[in-house]
Design goal:
Helices cover 38% and strands 19% of the residues. It has 198 residues and is α/β, with parallel strands linked by helices. Helix 7 links the parallel strand 8 and strand 9. Helix 3 runs parallel beside helix 5.
């Protein structure tokens, strides 16, 4: 059992909290209450960033001390929104939110994952007609191994998980968000994920 704090209690955070609790982990999901957030992060071994990506860097930087030594799983994408509310452009072109977080939080082990799919797929990958891919990006191998185990608990088969390498590779998966608005406009909010076909 892992003690997990999920920052963000919307559709993404709530979905992950329910699934990880069902898998037997001790999960606390917090929204914007500063005191509750600090308490939850201090008590956790693993923290999940499920906050809106546009404000994640600023919010998590205020938790530098509490996040020191922790694994931070970043599932957010930092984008500006278009007129229809869908992602329009990257906030960190030539970089990524995960890289910016790692630079701002050097004592925290950042792992980027689950950001290349609509949120229902994060906790129910087997519901898709074809096997999806969950990518891992991060500089700490042991942290990525821990996250891999949590993905398996969420229903991801080992062969569906691809370790891309260091945190710099997160800029590739974060750029995949630019597919999302076009796919949604073409097919609606039907669950989908990026998949590597072999």
């Amino acid at each position: 059992m892992t003690t997990i704090a999920i920052l963000g209690n919307g559709r993404v955070g709530g979905n992950l909290a329910t699934a990880l609790t069902r898998a037997g982990h001790d999960v606390t999901a917090v929204d914007r209450d500063p005191d509750a957030t600090v308490t939850a992060v201090r008590a956790a071994g693993v923290v999940v960033n499920a906050t809106p990506g546009a404000g994640s860097l600023e919010r998590l930087t205020t938790l530098r001390e509490e996040l020191s030594g922790k694994i931070l799983i970043d599932v957010s994408n930092a984008t500006t929104d278009g007129p229809d509310g869908l992602p329009a452009d990257l906030i960190h072109p030539g970089s990524s939110l995960a890289e910016q977080l790692q630079e701002a939080l050097p004592a925290t082990r950042i792992v980027k994952t689950l950001n290349t799919m609509l949120f229902p797929v994060m906790t129910a990958p087997a519901t898709l007609a074809q096997a999806p891919t969950a990518f891992l990006s991060g500089d700490a191998p042991q942290a990525k191994q821990t996250v891999r185990g949590l993905l398996v608990d969420l229903g991801w088969h080992e062969e569906w998980i691809t370790d891309l390498g260091g945190i710099r590779t997160a800029r590739a998966t974060e750029a995949a968000i630019l597919f999302v608005p076009h796919v949604i406009r073409a097919n609606g909010f039907t669950p989908f994920a990026v998949s590597i076909a072999r």
